[in-house]
Write a structure and sequence with these properties.
Blueprint lengths: L1 E7 L9 H20 L7 E7 L7 H10 L6 E6 L7 E7 L2 H11 L9 E3 L8 H5 L4 E6 L4 H4 L12 H20 L7
């Protein structure tokens, strides 16, 4: 059984892609790195996917889906961060009402950093195939008030990234992915 965390590596033609979507790729990598460094061993596999071809119509995600859809019942949740890594506020979530209740309970663990909201729905080009077929999905929800200042522009460089905000985003990704991967049962479909 798999809990998938992800971001995409490709950027728009004029930018470096630090925000769109280097930040999402980084926090996904960092989540798994933190879990490993803490010596935690969840019941399910945590899988990092660094998508490619998202900016060209999601061709990498489509191919991954085609290669793995026969095991769709083993995918517990698919998570994608693709709207920057600014100050987080919670998760976008798509799934059953029962699964949403579980996710809301998990988000209470993030009260110390004030990131507890669950929004409807999850969003992500790279996880859309999975969600369409009933796999619960989550996307990072953060303050995107400055996102379109840099989105698909020459300004999308590392200077956009705030290390403290990225650490908070990585904390959200780490807690949510680990708890779901270590629960006794998969999220209800």
């Amino acid at each position: 059984q798999v809990v998938l965390v992800s971001g995409h590596l490709d950027s728009w033609d004029v930018g470096q892609g630090a925000m769109d979507d280097g930040g999402g790729a980084f926090i996904s990598w960092e989540a798994l790195s933190l879990i490993k460094d803490l010596g935690l061993h969840p019941k399910r596999t945590l899988r990092l996917v660094l998508w490619t071809g998202e900016e060209q119509g999601g061709v990498g995600a489509k191919q991954y889906y085609q290669l793995h859809k026969e095991n769709i019942s083993n995918f517990d949740i698919v998570m994608e961060s693709d709207e920057g890594t600014f100050q987080p506020s919670g998760l976008g979530f798509s799934g059953s009402a029962e699964a949403r209740d579980v996710v809301k309970e998990i988000m209470t663990l993030l009260q110390p950093i004030n990131v507890t909201d669950v929004y409807d729905p999850a969003d992500g080009t790279d996880i859309a195939y999975w969600m369409r077929d009933g796999v619960p999905g989550a996307s990072l929800h953060n303050d995107i008030s400055k996102y379109f200042w840099f989105h698909h522009s020459q300004g999308d460089t590392m200077t956009v990234q705030d290390p403290n905000q990225m650490n908070l985003c990585a904390a959200v990704w780490t807690v949510v992915s680990y708890v779901i991967a270590d629960m006794e049962d998969m999220l209800p479909r």
